[in-house]
Amino acid sequence: MSTSSTPPIVRFYDPHLKAPDAQGRSLSEILSWSDSRLEFSHDYIQTLFPLPERSPIDPSAPVIDHATFTAFRCRPELRLRLRLALERICQFYGFRFQGTGEHDSLRIEKQGNGRFEARARNWVSRFNHNHLRITRIIRCLRVLGLDEEAKAFFDAVKQVHDETGRISDRSLMFWTRAMERPLYLAPEDEVDEGMGKDFLYEFENQGDGREGIKDRNGMPGDGTNSDDDTTSDNTKDLDEGDENTHSTTPDNPSFREEDQTPTNTIRRTKPKYEEV
């Protein structure tokens, strides 16, 4: 199988290929950025923590298709490098890893010596675009097989919400949806009237074992085969914006009040949320 047929997210995270993103930046380069650059750059988060939903902020950004999903579920080296990305983002938010997740439970806790307080200025406030990034990160980790890391990260940010009172319940609502909803149902979806992303729906309904991941010929998959699954442009990205505000109004000219999508995708209806 040629390298060109490997999904871009897999090439980016593959420890041997180390392919750059669309802007020519490698994973190691992005992870070496300063906190200031991580804060003010807005075109890396979609590749670092991709979603099954296409981004209206950057429609050209890669998405998690079936082949990408299969590759991360079958290849621990991809998940390890995704975890490295999480560790760097946790440092950016003022957290640190405790526990390995192998023999003792993984915890993500505040850094000491005033480091958390210094870095919390980036995101512990109302109407902060990092709240959307957090939603994205939680969902990405769960979809790509880092469930324990997703739970530890969710617990850490929820604790900050509960303790500070400076993050809205609205943001916590989206974080909770990202953590607790079925994988095929995106946090911003208000109505579940279909199967969502069919490969995610099928995965959840055949169990969580890797033996359930097969390629189109019914053989165990390794994520090297590309997928013809298309991503609906009528999904709303969890990305840059103020405190999940933009997730209530899809930034897409083709969006309709009730989108007539194929039966193997969720019928998207515009969410009508009240401010908490």
From TrEMBL:
Superkingdom classification of source: Eukaryota
Cellular component annotations (GO), alphabetically ordered: membrane
Domain Opioid growth factor receptor (OGFr) conserved: 28-178
Basic and acidic residues biased stretches: 207-217
Disordered, as annotated region: 207-276
GO molecular function, one term: opioid growth factor receptor activity
PANTHER family, sorted: OPIOID GROWTH FACTOR RECEPTOR (OGFR) CONSERVED DOMAIN-CONTAINING PROTEIN, OPIOID GROWTH FACTOR RECEPTOR OGFR ZETA-TYPE OPIOID RECEPTOR
Family membership: Belongs to the opioid growth factor receptor family.
Name of protein: Opioid growth factor receptor (OGFr) conserved domain-containing protein
